[in-house]
Specification:
2 copies of one chain form a homodimer. The first copy, chain A, is of the alpha+beta class. Chain A has 2 domains: about 1-70, Arc Repressor Mutant, subunit A, CATH 1.10.10; about 85-139, 2-Layer Sandwich (Dna Ligase, domain 1). Chain A is about 40% helix and about 20% strand. Chain A has helices spanning about 1-10, 15-30, 35-40, 50-65, 105-110, 130-135, and strands at about 70, 80, 85-90, 95-100, 115-130. A 3-stranded mixed beta sheet of chain A has the order 4-3-5. Chain A is globular, with a radius of gyration of 17 Å. At the A-B interface, strand 3, helix 5, strand 5 and helix 6 of A face strand 3, helix 5, strand 5 and helix 6 of B. The first copy, chain A, binds a DNA duplex (30 and 30 nucleotides) through helix 4.
DNA sequence: AAACATTTTTGTAATCCCTACAACTAAGTA
DNA sequence: TACTTAGTTGTAGGGATTACAAAAATGTTT
């Protein structure tokens, strides 16, 4: 929890109990959780917790660069506490979102659109079927 | 319209009046329209048109590879009738979606996730402010 | 052509994610 | 303590999308 608190302060975010809990969850669960998954998990620790707080907090984290919002499917947003350059792969079968390392991190920056005044976000998304789901299907 | 019909048939899609109209709209409007934009435009030609048909048709086009669904924001899907490899840039100010050419089209394929059995889609999205909006703001 | 089967379209109802907003609570300041 | 600001909570509402069943159109067989 200490790490999460310091993490927030480094990004200029005042560490309330709820914010620390959300940040801590993101740092200890690299599963790219949805709002609901975070809410369900944290509601056990903080019984008075509201879904709106999760939404508010995640917006705040994204604004300050402490988290990343992934719009990989049109269903619901996924969030990532790790903001170093990397891509994501979503299995359309089980819904899991995996990290994808890039062999050339400069590629995304290099191809920045010419008609952009400034870029706030760049994301590379893959969709398909993961090996786990493919194995289950062939059984 | 002839082009759109043949285009559909090449992808194994039976060319109904509505499907041809949607495909034709995508091929003649490179604006990455939303369902609502397509519906509003085509309802003038086809007064009995239903929004559901637009949804159904776009799903069908995407399944057969005749169109691309862009989930660049969480608000609503945008569609692209041009399926050659390219990225997209959305201006968070005016909402327009622009095409972005890539200097190395092999990059995306090369970085395909290791734990993927097979990939059905790969998209690179940029978000920011376009030069038009930046110019308006500075006035 | 007629009868039948299949495909496609249509419209309504319902679902679900997310946001708006106002009241409540907690924290910081003088 | 009194006051001000910041943060949280819950409900209500908006808006994109889907489910579903009826209607219409198309294709097929006799």
């Amino acid at each position: 929890m200490m790490v999460a608190k310091e993490h927030l302060m480094q990004f200029g975010i005042r560490p309330s109990v709820q914010r620390v809990a959300v940040m801590h969850y993101l740092l200890t669960h690299r599963t790219h959780p949805t709002v609901d998954e975070i809410y369900t998990a944290l509601a056990k620790e903080i019984p008075t917790l509201s879904r709106t707080t999760i939404y508010n907090t995640l917006h705040l984290l994204c604004e300050h660069g402490a988290a990343l919002a992934l719009c990989i499917d049109g269903i619901n947003a996924h969030f990532d506490g790790f903001t170093h350059p990397h891509a994501h792969f979503m299995c359309t079968c089980c819904g899991k979102v995996y990290d994808v390392d890039l062999d050339d991190a400069s590629f995304v920056k290099r191809n920045t659109p010419h008609n952009a005044s400034h870029i706030t976000d760049a994301q590379l998304y893959y969709k398909g079927v993961c090996v786990d789901c493919a194995a289950k299907k062939s059984n």
